[in-house]
Amino acid sequence: MSFxxxxxxxxILKTLTESGYEKPTPIQAKxxxxxxxGRDVVGLxxxxxxxxxxxxxxxIQRLNKNQTHTRPGSIRVLIVSPTRELAAQIHASVRAYSxxxxxxxxxxxxxxxxxxxxxxxxxxxxxxxxxxxxxxDLADQNCxxxxxxxxxxxxxxxxxxxxxxxxxxxxxxxxxxxTRQTLLFSATMPKEIKxxxxxxxxxxxxxxxxxxxxxxxxxxxxxxxxxxxxxxPAIIALVKKHSDKQVIVFTRTKRGADRVVRRLEGSNLxxxxxxxxxxxxxxxxxxxxxxxxxxxxxVATDIAAxxxxxxxxxxxxxxxxxxxxxxxxxxxxxxxxxxRDGLAISFCEPDEQFYLRDIQxxxxxxxxxxxxxxxxxxxxxxxxxNARKPKVVxxxxxxxxDRPAKPAQGKPRPAKKRADGGPAKPAGAKPNRRRPNRxxxxxxxx
Length: 446
Ligand code: ADP
Ligand code: MG
Fold this sequence. Notes:
Layout lengths: L9 H10 L6 H11 L4 E4 L6 H15 L9 E6 L3 H14 L7 E4 L6 H8 L2 E6 L1 H9 L10 E4 L2 H6 L3 H10 L5 E6 L4 H10 L4 E4 L10 E7 L5 H11 L4 E5 L3 H13 L4 E4 L5 H12 L5 E4 L12 E6 L6 H8 L9 E7 L4 H11 L83
Parallel strand pairs: 1-6, 1-7, 2-4, 2-5, 3-4, 5-6, 8-13, 9-11, 9-12, 10-11, 12-13
This protein binds adenosine-5'-diphosphate and magnesium ion (MG).
């Protein structure tokens, strides 16, 4: 299978060669012809499968072929993404893939000033990448119009559902013309997303590649049984051993992430944290430093777990095991992107054995036990059959969201920040609808 057979123009094929893409990923091979043909698409695919190029390439080709005069505030292709980081990343891909073409694009997300975004919208756009909260804010201020949208893309739809964006998504869909093309991508298909697709997509082509319960084949996984005191020394030893790799460390809480960074820095290991209590600027700086290789260790809560694409990540360390098993799959999916190999090592303290058992059941694999690094004391391999759910669990919160859905009508009111640093909630917002807890886990996470 090669890109030439998918109906893409020479111009786009050239960009692909320059990007070093030799052959399409499975989702690209199936989605590109369907999108070029104008079909609606439902794509079920986990992260790292090349979804962004799958929808961006054919759309860029179409936009470039029939360039129309865009009205002020109008958008031809609207890409909606659950988080700011993902939106920024998609926009970076859009720009890379449309290099040399006269495609005008912009990215609007919360947490930064609106002024520039309003300016960008003024002349009309070919492609807009947006998070739902900021998009609707700008629409409420009459800075953009949905009536010229030709294609609407809902990326990581299940994550948007998880963080309470379903009402916002419905509002956005209803505002777009009925004749639009709709592309919906999701790693899982909870019933709310199925219903959304059934109601709003027109005879979609359904494309499924590797289900989420199957961890990427290329990822080598291991578990280390250690006490909490030994986790930092273990990280330091692992980072030294894998000095050729960029390392991402996942913690369950924001404070935990900051603590890990402080302790690593105390041992002269450059590390940066990204989580919901950091400003947009801080997060971007941390990600940039990490991407540029200036800082070998990124410590993240689960907001970073999905979609963040740093090609060089070679090692994922789970400082704590997630108590929702699917989160494990998303976290370790940060490594072994596209065709690369990757390693994922999880620390498991006696309290977490129950979660390890849950994860192993989900992925249908016994994660091999690794010896602890030299000088770091390990624990005996437990018998997981007897693992009990810990009584006191640090609750895993859903990731910080951009801004939750707003009631459909009424003046926009300033959102109130929750004291615990959790998601902001505008006055009068309905409680978020969440997926039913299928795994009887004590908490939800994204
Ligand atoms: P997803 O949206 O499914 O998480 P991305 O579109 O972010 O995946 O792609 C993941 C990584 O794979 C990116 O680094 C991207 O540049 C790379 N990639 C995408 N398509 C190809 C391809 N056909 N060949 C090689 N690398 C690819
Ligand atoms: Mg993506």
